[in-house]
Specification:
By secondary structure, the chain is of the alpha/beta class. 52% of the residues lie in helices and 15% in strands. Strands 3-2-1-4-5-6 form a 6-stranded parallel β-sheet, sandwiched between helices. Strand 5, helix 5 and strand 6 form a beta-alpha-beta unit. 35% of the residues are buried.
């Protein structure tokens, strides 16, 4: 797929706009992208919360980012179905035991993921080759990762395919239920002995 101003690479940022989310990196990334690739990338930021209004104000001159505010699940699903990349942008400081709901949404949507959280999320992305990990609070590196997807759409497609495969393998409710039942049966057998 060749991305153009009329057919941009679409990046989703699903957030509650709380204080741990890195809205500044999001807006700065959009500025860099608009300056360097014009409208070939469009960022869609969903949700509402304490830092949203400030981000909208900071981005008022940008035409490559849309702030939807709170939207219905159906509207969000429609946007997810039209998009290619999921952005996980948190402020530094989260170092372990964090896998947010957005990760599962992005994997279920077969996205390539650009992530700046150095937790299990980074390992999940690396081990399954589903995206690009970058340092926290570094808009230049986030923009460079998105530009890499523009320049090498085969890399994006590979990450998207790997996300789809990971979802089918790891987030399959029926298979997970079977494995959980087998695990419980093993525990029960151990207790009997």
């Amino acid at each position: 797929t060749e991305f153009t101003d009329q057919n941009p690479l679409k990046c989703m940022y699903v957030t509650s706009w709380g204080s741990s989310y890195d809205a500044n990196t999001l807006v700065e990334t959009a500025k860099i992208l608009q300056d360097e690739v014009g409208q070939k990338v469009h960022i869609i930021a969903t949700g509402d919360g304490e830092s949203r209004a400030n981000s909208v104000l900071k981005a008022k001159q940008l035409t490559n980012i849309t702030f939807t505010g709170f939207i219905s699940d159906q509207e969000k699903n429609n946007l997810l179905n039209e998009s290619h990349v999921g952005l996980v942008l948190m402020k530094g400081g989260i170092t372990q035991y964090w896998i947010g709901n957005k990760i599962a949404e992005y994997i279920a949507s077969s996205f390539g993921i650009v992530n700046n959280v150095e937790t299990e999320v980074a390992q999940l992305i690396k081990n399954n080759n589903i995206g690009i990990n970058v340092p926290s609070e570094n808009p230049r590196r986030v923009a460079d990762s998105i530009i890499k997807y523009l320049d090498y759409p085969s890399t994006l497609q590979e990450h998207m395919n790997n996300s789809k495969e990971l979802f089918g393998r790891s987030f399959n409710r029926k298979q997970n239920s079977i494995e959980y039942i087998e695990y419980l049966e093993q525990i029960c057998d151990l207790k009997k002995n």
